[in-house]
Amino acid sequence: MPYIEQRKRDRYETAIRMLIDELLMFPDGLDGNLNYIISTLLYRIWLDNQSYEKGNKLIGVLECAKLEFYRRVIANYEDEKNRINGDVFVSSKKEN
Question: How far apart, in Å, do the first and last CA atoms of the chain sit?
Fold first, then answer.
């Protein structure tokens, strides 16, 4: 759940802003650089306490972050493009 208390968010904001600024300096390598940061964070947390439970939790965090990003950000973008450009799943011809 990414909806942590504001006081906790505030603790991370400076570091997050610095990471974003660095990432945006290399837009051609954004995918690889962002993947590196995420992978490194996960790996270093994993090294602190290696267990199936820890690995399972880290994978769960990734999956939930992915799903929430899709649900809140990407789905809204796709809905807007659907409104602008038309629904891809509705044919102009009736199917038999």
Answer: 45
- Contact of 30 with 38, CB cutoff 8 Å: no
Reading the chain (96 residues) residue by residue, the pLDDT tens digits are 899 999 999 999 999 999 999 999 988 999 999 999 999 999 999 999 999 999 999 999 999 999 999 999 999 999 999 999 999 998 766 655
pTM (2 decimals)?
Answer: 0.82
1 and 43 within one domain: yes
* Stated length of the chain: 96
Q: For residue 22, give the nearest of 14, 8, 10, 39 by alpha carbon.
A: 14
In the chain, helix, strand, coil percent, each to 5? 80, 0, 20
56 & 35 share domain: no
